[in-house]
Each structure stands twice: as C-alpha cells, then as structure tokens.
C-alpha cells in the first residue's frame, strides 16, 4: 500500500528503500497475523487436556465448521506470509537500474 503522490515524486534510490520498507512491514504484519491465526486454530482444535478435538458449532447438526474455518484462515495467512517473504527477498536483491543513454533514436 503506497501513497502514490509521495512514491511517484521520489527518486529511484528512495523508491527502492520505500519498496523494501513496505515489504518488511507487510511481512511482519503477515507473520503476526499468522501467529494469531495459529493460536486460534490450536485452541479450537484441541481440548484443555491437549487432545485433538475440533470445536463444534453447537447446533443440532453440530459440524466442526468453526475449527475448519480457523484452519483455512491460518492456511491463507501462511501463504500470504510466504508471498510477503518472497517480495521482501526480491526487493532486497533489486539493484539500481543504470541510467538510460537513449538519444531519441539517433544512431
């Protein structure tokens, strides 16, 4: 998420640092959310004695949808964390592009 007015007015070097900062903040946020989702899923998938027991909906049908939904949220956040990590690695490996010496098509 960028404020385009500031980003577009920045030079190439500052843009690289802004990209790195943005990717780092995104990665840290995703790690924190993944951890929170893991804790919620763990609590819903285990009883107080630590045994595997999925949380139930409490209706007459009583399906384990709450635990399954929390597991899917955790999985999605972990994939998002992996994507954020790959973006961070890519931005850390990015180098400055050399200045173009184009002379308007003259040979």
Automatic annotation (TrEMBL):
Family label: Belongs to the TRAP transporter small permease family.
Function of the protein: Part of the tripartite ATP-independent periplasmic (TRAP) transport system.
Keyword presence, GTP-binding: no
Chain ranges of the Tripartite ATP-independent periplasmic transporters DctQ component domain: 1-92
Oligomeric and partner information: The complex comprises the extracytoplasmic solute receptor protein and the two transmembrane proteins.
Any Pfam family matching the protein: DctQ
GO cellular component, one term: plasma membrane
Topological type in the membrane: Multi-pass membrane protein
Keywords: Cell inner membrane, Cell membrane, Membrane, Transmembrane, Transmembrane helix, Transport
Bilayer-crossing regions: 21-42, 68-89
Main location: membrane
Keyword Membrane (UniProt): yes
Subcellular location: Cell inner membrane; Cell membrane
InterPro entries xref list: DctQ
One MF annotation (Gene Ontology) recorded for this entry: transmembrane transporter activity
Species assigned in the record: Modicisalibacter muralis
Name of this chain's protein: TRAP transporter small permease protein
């Amino acid at each position: 998420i960028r404020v385009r007015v500031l980003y577009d007015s920045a030079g190439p070097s500052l843009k690289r640092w802004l990209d790195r900062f943005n990717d780092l903040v995104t990665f840290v946020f995703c790690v924190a959310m993944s951890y929170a989702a893991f804790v919620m899923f763990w609590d819903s998938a285990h009883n107080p004695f630590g045994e595997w027991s999925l949380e139930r909906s409490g209706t007459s049908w009583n399906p384990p949808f709450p635990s399954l939904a929390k597991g899917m949220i955790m999985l999605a956040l972990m994939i998002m964390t992996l994507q954020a990590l790959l973006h961070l690695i890519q931005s850390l490996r990015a180098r400055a592009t050399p200045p173009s010496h184009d002379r308007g098509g003259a040979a």
